[in-house]
Here is the input.
Amino acid sequence: IDLVKTRMQNQRGSLAGEIMYRNSFHCFAKVVRGEGFFGLYRGLLPQLMGVSPEKAIKLAANFTMRDLLTSKDGNLPLWKECIAGGSGGACQVIFTNPLEIVKIRLQVAGEMTEGTRTGAIGVIKELGFSGLYKGASACFLRDIPFSAIYFPVYAHMKTYLADEDGYNGAVSLVGAAMIAGVPAAGLLTPADVIKTRLQVKARSGQQTYNGLIDCATKMREGLLSGKERELVYADLLHNLV
Here is the structure.
């Protein structure tokens, strides 16, 4: 799912008018047909390396800030909940951005028809240390608001779905998490697209961007002209999933 999302997001405005995938299902089928079933799992190693520390950092930062911002009478206003959640999102970027850019470049490597496809070590050597933080501004733009929305919604939904004794079973916890993910992922899809396009190395003939503002401006122009409208939200279903 994540690989299909990345490839759909990276269908940037091409000088040659190239559209590789008509929709998500076409992308999935084309990857399986051209690269085999395991082609869907490109970039899995960085994903596995990053997911545990990413969640640990985000959760620890969120709950630590919630404790610090809670008043002595146990009151925690919504705006402070958002600050706590956003703090968790900011902390995770410092660790996860290098893994994220390696994962994304490996995920789109299967589209290359020329040259040698590189592995994770090759990507790291090509980027260098500073290059591993390329697109970090867009990562902050995505992850801070995402967590600022997700954690407060999750906390309130967990309370709402608890039984009369205040207990949450597995079903209510999963339900609260899924509900919280809908507005967080849906609203931040454009930021996720920007992050992907900044972190993927443009191929010959593809649109290039000189930073976050330039990327957002060119995408806005594409939206107004109708050329980018379907592409920007093409991965919305994947984000929600």
Summary: The mean pLDDT is 85. The two ends are 8 Å apart (CA to CA).
